[in-house]
Amino acid sequence: MGYARVRSIGLVGLEGHPVVVEAHVDAGLPALVLSGLPDASLNEARDRVRAAIVNSGETWPQRRITVNLLPAELPKSGSGFDLAIAIVLLAGTGELPPRGLGGAAAIGELGLDGQIRPVRGVLPMVLAAARAGIRRIIVPATNAAEASLVPGVAVRSAEALRQVLEFIRGAATLPDAPDGDEIVEETAPDLADVVGQPRGRFALELAAAGRHHLALFGPPGAGKTMLAQRLPGILPPLDDAAALEVTAVHSIAGTLPPAPRLIRRPPFQAPHHTASAPALVGGGSGLARPGSLSLAHHGVLFLDEAAEFAPSVLNALRQPLEDGWVVLARSRGSTRFPARIQLVLAANPCPCGAGNDVNCTCSAIERRRYRTRLSGPLMDRIDLRVRLEPVGAAALLGEPHEQETSAAVLRRVLAARQTAADRWAELGYAVNAQVPGPVLRRPPFRLPRSATAELARRLDDGKLSARGYDRVLRCAWTIVDLDGRSGPTRDDVAEALELRTGDL
Ligand SMILES: [Zn+2]
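A: This is the predicted complex of the input protein with zinc ion.
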């Protein structure tokens, strides 16, 4: 009696997948049978589509209609298939020209009133459409600017189902989305605002150049947060592939502004210490939401007052730090989001913040428990640990002297990154933090014994773990890369060691 099909896009994690929505109409009792969606979404989708069609001035077809979403094995979630379902249903019953949308895809949730509502994840959906050879796509008006960030796909947008139906009937046009214009000067916190803290600034620069994880210890007011916030500003801007990936994660999270640009600056995420493990790793029912770990993908995850985070939350960081992915268990299989992050921890020296000061009111037990929280496997992954002292009144009130800007530091970081990238290119690494220990310990990169004697001694004494040994070597390479020299000396190794063993 009638058959039609329309293309749409589903999301699994960060990956979009083409979905075919097909309708078959036959002569049974009037009914709408929907299959291919999780049970919970089926009834809701059916109710929304029915109401939207009727409230758009259409007559509900009195036929038996079967709508199916393919491929069946793809886990589908979210409400973005509504628009495609409405179109295919009307095309199958002859209410629309059988050509329907031709080869175009449709994305959008329908309101009961027939309005088309925005959906999360439009950017990765349109990226998937482009990869699948889909050249035209209809998206909710609110998502048009975001969809147009993807080159090679003609984006049209609509605010209501009625507009789309008129468009298919040839009675109206749909507006083209504006071309994405992504040149933008963002203002970000600058290192020029940081008074003093030469040690902290140096550690931050090293962290940026080698992509090392960093821990900042010090009393309240020492400027830990100020420094951490300035790390993204001295990191290389994201290239095209990374920018699309990062923007896609934020699209799925629903955190993009109304007229988004590609995110070019490495993101900065600072979850509060009361954050739960799900807030950090992501989750939720239906279309999974990425957590802080993934929102910080290709950027910085800053944990202020790190010792106050629940141990379960800190533990949840370990796997993503190893492999760069967050894996979420879902009702149907698992889904994963990218989470290649640079970690910055900050902590007070003790619960009351006074540290060794005579003003400290903490008991010995409290202090010990506090330190224990910040030890173990997570801390062992931190290359740089720096103790910051409060900025003295002399530095704060004395003769103002120019502090170096983030732009000046970034130039050195870029040069150092290039040096490292050239050195490791043959082995496939981009930054020092990625290089495995054995590579650093064997020729041609093995350092002369004179340079590593002290490290070997500490390893023998049990004062340095094997992993710690390698981390000191990586950091020593970053020191010479920033300095424009060819290889670490004993002094560089000593400096790297000192930066690693800084403590609460
Ligand atoms: Zn204290």
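The two ends are 76 Å apart (CA to CA). Residues 350-352, 354, 360-362 surround zinc ion (CB under 6 Å).
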